[in-house]
Structures are given as structure tokens and as C-alpha cells.
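Purpose: get a first structural picture of the assembly so the mutagenesis plan has something to point at.
Setup: two entries, given in the order below. No constraints added.
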Amino acid sequence: MIEFNQVDKMFDEKDKPLIALSDITLSIHKGETFGVVGESGAGKSTLLRLINALEKPTNGSVSVNGIDVSNLSKKKLRQAQKQIGMIFQQFNLLNNKTVGENVHLPLELHDYPAALTTDEVLRFVGLEDKKDSYPSQLSGGQKQRVGIARALITRPDILLCDEPTSALDQNTTEEIVEVLKKVHREFKMTIVVVTHELPVIKELCERAAIMEQGEIRKVITVKRSTEQANVKPYHERAIEVLTDD
Amino acid sequence: MTEALRLYIDRVIEFMPRMLESLGETGIMLFFAMLAAILAGIPVGTLLYLTSEGQPTENRPLNRIINAFVNIIRSFPFLLLVVAMQPFIRQVYGRATGDPIAASFPMVVIAIALYARFVEQSLNEIPRGILETAQSMGATTWQLVWKFLYVEARSSLVIGFATATISFVSYSTIMGVVGGGGIGDFAIRYGYQRYETDIMYTAIVLIIILVEIFQWLGLKLAKKLDKR
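Result (C-alpha cells, whole complex):
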């Protein structure tokens, strides 16, 4: 469980402090898929980064599984961070390492008793044949799959997704959403997704927080679309959109 | 024409032993400079990067001290650095002149300062997201440096090293003033002081070939390492 308790976050700008988040109180339940939506600059990425303590709150506290992550020693902080997986908008793969080496990287940093193997996670995301390729040889969607595989290999309790599909086209976005749904189905992990793309939240999340100017306006239960995702080839979708009145 | 060529070849053969000896002296000075660049330049440059503003490991006082060292050494006219270091070299090594090892001391100092700056610049080119990823995985600073930064910066570090080495060749050419020898000193003594112009140009061509080799090796290795 992730709990925000009256969290404020301010950044020191040159002339005046920038208020990124104000008075955030929120709980995200264990095993749920939770979305955070809002326009650019609404503070949603900052909110996500408080969960794995990439940022520290100015006021208030954030606790993950009962541990206050805003107030840990460096060593304890690393211990907390290693239990949380994260994927990024720009994928953040190491370009000089192969896909297999990228995926295995977290296991070189810490011991994970319940870790999966590189082959298992690559098979899970459908890239078992790309193990020896370099990221520059992959498409955007494939790179994000590698990012997901890298996050999964440690079997984290929580997966944080920072604009996971914003650098991808619509068809690839749906592919990634399908992979994330499969992650949730098979590993039952808590998934927190930050994005400005509403269809992603609609497809993936059970609940969502709507943010504006650093505040949570509302937390809602998402009405999931019942119809199965209908992935059309790009050229069909292009014709449909461009010839529509 | 063939007569002139034969004469030239005879002269080159005559001067060859002295020229090879000078190249050996240049080699000694370059060896110490390159070794210092790797063993000390890389750590100092990494420290410059890690302690700079905005990093999780920011440390302003330490950053200022290292920056001051690098800037002072690099802004010293090299000839004056050589002369200024004389008493120190005499203290440490026993003699300060007439020996390529004594002449290597100032080379070592400039090598550390110069390559540290190149290393810092290479690390600065790494996208911010890579640091964030390391942090999100709970990497220690040591792991960040070895498993993320050096991996992503390696081809840029190699190119910087080739550029630095070429500067070391240039710095080594003035070591004649303290009797350090080297191919540059050879060119000055025979070409400038004894008007053996043909021998001077031969030495200069050797220096150019040396530089070309370093440049070629550096680019080749960098390309091999770069998978971006």
C-alpha cells in the first residue's frame, strides 16, 4: 500500500519557490492499477517520483508498505528503492549494452532472492529473439518492452510507469498497454501509471486521480471499456481518422 | 635529383640513432603522461562531475578545490609550469634536468588536469534519464559510476584520451629546455640551432605520423565501443 499524507513539494527556483504539489493525501491499494492524469506541469510525475524517493516531500510524508520513504538513511533508502520497479517515457536503456545485459542490470546491483531470469522476462514481453541486439536496433515499442522486462526481473511489489507510452504511436501504445495488463494479471503487482493519455488510463486502470496545478481534483473509479481492445493496422486507422468529418 | 635524394638518405641514416633515441625519450614522457591521465585523470574528472551542482552527490567545497586545481594548471603557460616545478622535482627525484623521467613530472601534472576536464565533459553528455534510472534501481555511487556512467561514456572517453595524448606529444616537444630530450628537442637542436633543415623536417614528419597514429587508433577504438 502506498500512502501520501498531506504532502507538499516545492522546488527552489531563482526568484520564487515553485509549488509542484500541495496538500496531497492519497492511498493506493495493494495490487491495484492506479492512474494519475493531468496536463503537463500538473505535478503528476513529481507525485510518482515521491513513491520511490527520487524526490523528497517538502512537508508531509509518503509511506510504502508501512515504511516512511521520505525519511530513510541512504542505505535503507536503496533497500526501499530496489523493491520498486520503474519504467520511463524515454525508456532509459543503456545504449552500449545488449538487450539481455540491460534486462539483467538490476540483478548486478543487489541480491534478489525471488528474481526471474533474463530469458523468462524477455519471453514474457515477447523479445526472446532480441537478447543480443543493441537498443539502437529496436523500435520504440520494443525498447519500452525491454524497459518493462528490466523492471520485472526483480519481481517488484510495485511498478511505477512515468508516461510509458508518450513517446510511442497509437498502435504501439496499445501493444504496451496490453503488456502492462498482462503484467498485472500474472504478477498481481501494484501498478501506478502517470500519463496525459486518457485512453491508456481507461484501458489499464481501476482507479485514477485527476490532477491540476499540483492538486488532486478528484479520485475516481474508472469505468473500463468492456469491448476488447481492437488493434487496427496503422494505415486503416489513418484512413479512418483523416476521412472522418 | 637522385644525387640529392641519395645525399638525404645518407644523412638520415647518419642521424637515425640520435633520432631513435629521441623518439624513445618522447615515449617515456608520453608513457608517464598517459598513465597519469588514466590512473588519476579519470578519477579526478569523475569527482568533478559527481560533486557538481544538481547531482545527488553534490559537494560544493570539494568541487571548487578540484576545479581550481584544474584551471590553474591548465591556464599556466606550460613552459612556466616546467620551470616552476624544478625545485619540487629536485626534491622528489634528486635531479630536475637532463633526464626524460625528470621531465615527465610536469607532463604528469598537465595530463591529470587536461584529461580530468575531458572526462567531466564526456560524463556531462550522458542523458539525465540514465542517472535517474540508476537511482531508481537503488544503485550506490560506485555502481552508478562503473555500471552506468563509464559504460555509456566509454567511446567519448576514448576519443578524449586520443585528443589528450596528442596534446601530450605537443607538450613533450618543449622539454628540451630542461634537457628532457625527445623528438621535439631533436628537431629544435638540429634544425634551428644547427641549420640542418632537412633533418628538422624529417623529425617534424615523424611527429605528425605519431599524432596521426594516435588519432586513428582513438577513433577506431571509439567506433568499436560505440553501440549507440
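Chain A touches chain B through 25 residues (CB under 8 Å).
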